[in-house]
Amino acid sequence: MLKKRCIFFIVVSLTLIFIGCNDKKGNVEPEVSKAKFSMEETLILDENSKSFYTIDNHKLKAKELAITDEEILCFNKDTLVTAINSKNGEDIILYKGNKVYKTSFIGELEYFNFNKEASKAIYKLKSKDDEYEYGILDLLTSKTSKIDMDIAISGNLIEFINDSNLIFYGASKTEKVSGIYRYNIETKEVNLIKGINNGFITYIKPISEECFIYLLSNFNDEKVTFKYNINNSKEYIVSKDITKIKDILEYKDQIFMIGSLKNNLFSLYGIKDNKVNRLVYDFPRGISDDSNIIQVNERIVFEGYDKNQEKNNLFEYNLLDKSTNIISNNDGKYRIIKKSDKY
Q1: pTM (predicted TM-score)
Q2: Angle CA(265)–CA(318)–CA(206) in degrees, nearest 5?
Q3: 51-56: strand order across its sheet
Q4: How far apart are CA 238 and CA 216, in angstroms?
Q5: Assigned domain for 286 exists
Q6: Nearest to 220 by CA among 191, 195, 198
Q7: With contact defined as beta carbons under 8 Å apart, do 240 and 248 qualify?
Q8: Smallest Cα–Cα separation from 24: which of 115, 100, 109?
Q9: How much of the chain, in percent, has pLDDT values that exceed 70?
Q10: What is the mean pLDDT of residues 215-243?
Q11: Considering only CA atoms, which of 84, 76, 81, 116 is closest in space to residue 95?
Q12: Which residues, in sequence order, are CB contacts of 88 under 8 Å at separation 6+?
């Protein structure tokens, strides 16, 4: 079961019947549903009320989704990807247009991430024998391809940087070289992007098709955040003050991050010209530990709370006037669901 699972129930009139269970083998023909999914730019879930919302004119607007018993993993304009527990493991369900595709996994899915089109996914599967498998799932055909190479991937530090390539942090099993690698899912070619021999990486995330951010911790417990460009192999230091990153994005000429600095203060920060500025102070009093961030027009949206993380709200930081406003009407347990084509 994917970690931090939130199973929710929605009463709907639409019944979807799925055919076939491929145990990660062969094709599954799509079943045609009676409804067509059309998604906006944003999707918010209140885990307490099991309600969905979009952001409309700086307020939450109710969104109806014809799904049952499933956790939403990602979405884009005509696609929704969900997960649900099954008898022997987990089912991944793709709603695309008016068609439904299902892939069944035997074992526990510990990690799942998508390309921009939400047509392919990287997965990490734990078997009943406590063995791990990394692979690529084609969500439209239900075909899987195991990532088999001489490099051990470190935990969940693997991401799509574009539709054909993954970046990951790992170590060669034969040459004893640690570093950041690129894996082409079509040719299965592996290339070392950057060797890491003076510490280890605790965070890595693409912010565009050319660049990614990574957080390096050296053996003296010093932490440095870098931005790396894979086209010209150049990198520069973003900050030496960041100790933890929960989520990060780049908008225009600035990087925005939810995380911690050396003072251990977990908050929303803006980073420009190697300077890290705290953007949120007493309103809200705290940032939710699991908060994602998204950029909506000239605003950064995040999850915050006053007293209790179980009763949080949705906030937006205005990049123009530097103000913070609440955009949810009531306390809830709001979760920002990331759009697959947004870094």
Answers
A1: 0.87
A2: 65
A3: 59-63, 51-56, 43-46, 334-337
A4: 11
A5: yes
A6: 198
A7: no
A8: 109
A9: 88
A10: 95
A11: 81
A12: 104, 106, 107
Q: Is residue 223 part of a domain?
A: no
Domain that holds residue 257: 246-342
- The distance of Cα 60 from the centroid of its chain, to the nearest Å, equals 22
In a domain, 31, yes or no: no
CA pair distance 18, 285, nearest whole angstrom: 45
pLDDT tops 60 at residue 9: no
Within 185-308, strands assigned E span 190-195, 199-206, 211-218, 223-229, 234-239, 242-251, 254-261, 266-272, 275-278, 286-287, 294-296, 299-305
- Our count of domains for the chain comes to 1
77-125 pLDDT, tens per residue?
888 899 999 888 999 999 888 889 999 999 999 999 999 988 999 999 9
Q: Quick check: is 10 in a domain?
A: no
Tokens matching residue 156: 């969940």
**Is there a contact between 90 and 1 (Cβ–Cβ < 8 Å)?**
yes
Tokens 């050296």 belong to which residue?
A: 218
317 close to 283: Cβ distance less than 8 angstroms: no
The set of residues, in sequence order, having a beta carbon less than 8 Å from that of 299 and lying 6+ positions away, is 58, 316, 317, 318, 319
Residue 31 predicted with pLDDT over 70: no
Instruction: Give the angle subtended at the CA of 259 by the CAs of 257 and 265, to the nearest 5°.
Output: 125
Strand partners, 25: none
Dihedral-angle region of residue 200 (phi above 0 means left; psi in -120 to 50 means alpha; beta otherwise): beta
CA distance linking residue 287 with residue 336, whole number of Å: 13
pLDDT confidence bin for 27, thresholds 50/70/90:
very low
Q: What is the dihedral of CA 315, 317, 321, 327, to 10 degrees?
A: -20
When pLDDT is cut at 50, 70 and 90, the band that residue 217 belongs to is very high
Per-residue burial over 127-153, b = 16 or more CB atoms within 10 Å of its CB, e = otherwise: eeeeeebbbbbbbbbbbbeebebebeb
